[in-house]
Amino acid sequence: MSTTTTVAAATTSPLSVWDAIAPDWNASITATGNKYFHRLQIPILTRFLAPHLTSSPKCLDLATGNGLVARWLVDNGASSVLATDGSTEMLRITETLTASDARYAGKIRTKRVDVTNRQDMEALIEEGGFDIVTINMAIMDIERLDVLAASLRPLLAPSGIFVATVLHPVFFTSLHDRQISVRYNPSTGEEETVLSKCIYGYLSVKPSLGIAVPGQREKQTYFHRPMHELFGEFFRVGMVMDGMEETGFTEEDRNHDRPQSNCNFSQLPAILGFRMRFLSS
């Protein structure tokens, strides 16, 4: 059986869309984070970063959005965070939220950086020596990773780490159908609802249009990468992975009003997180 898929092409640049939808994104995610952040992302960030936050590290948060992870880093022990984003509107929101809370005074700075632009990354390298570099839930929104990957060695301190989270390539950015079926359980004599996803495009998926938050005024572009391509960009520059986790929602997160909600697929991970570093020479 063959499947023909038509993928919409983006008509505007990825960053211009993020400037347009920044207020929508901030209103939905909020200054303190949504369900995805608290239930799925924080557990990964905590397990990967907690041992490294005890020494008041110098941190870089790429694609910071509204500064959610930058503030989390300071709250959990970072001495300073440089929060960057390619969207000027996202940075404006970050600056507003940071300035309104005295806890972050003098600890969070912002800088516009497009991680796909070599000149931007070269200028950022001048501020290198970071103990921690993070990029939370943004890799699937970035058109190319080679410039970012090539910049990590000069950005990181000798023992520094790089931590990323991304929508799961298998179950989220692949081409798939969400399916709801009913089966009879012979052990209980009751009917059961079974939720599953049918993946029909994974190894080669063109950029596609989608939404990050409900009701946003424009669609942004998702860039799918199978795992070998995603990790391969960083392996090629000499990084090694020393941590990988997949997280998903649990039964207590179930959305009873929307059976098709991604929160209800508790056996299928929604987010993939990984930690990388360079081996000492």
Low-confidence stretches: 1-11
The named CATH superfamily: Vaccinia Virus protein VP39
CATH architectural group: 3-Layer(aba) Sandwich
CATH top-level class:
Alpha Beta
Helical content class = 25-40%
- What is the residue-averaged pLDDT? 93
Shape: globular
Count all strands and give the number. Answer: 11
Order of helix and strand elements from N to C terminus: HHEHEHEHEHEEEEEHEE
The tally of helices reads 7
CATH T-level topology: Rossmann fold
Question: Main sheet?
Answer: 7 strands, mixed
What is the beta-strand fraction? Answer: 25-35%
SSE class: alpha/beta
Question: How would you portray this structure in words?
Answer:
- The chain has 281 residues and is an alpha/beta fold.
- The protein has one domain (14-168, 207-278): Vaccinia Virus protein VP39 (Rossmann fold), CATH 3.40.50.150.
- 28% of the residues lie in helices and 29% in strands.
- The chain contains seven helices and eleven strands.
- It has helices at 14-29, 35-49, 68-75, 88-99, 118-125, 146-155, 227-235; strands at 58-62, 80-85, 108-112, 130-136, 156-167, 175-185, 190-201, 208-210, 220-222, 239-247, 271-278.
- It has a seven-stranded mixed beta sheet. It has a two-stranded antiparallel ribbon with strand order 6-7.
- α6 (146-155) links the parallel β4 (130-136) and β5.
- The N and C termini lie far apart (50 Å).
- Mean pLDDT is 93; it is low at 1-11.
- One of its GO terms (biological process) is methylation.
- Residues 60-163 form the Methyltransferase type domain.
- It comes from Cladorrhinum samala.
- InterPro entries: Methyltransf_11 (IPR013216), SAM-dependent_MTases_sf (IPR029063).
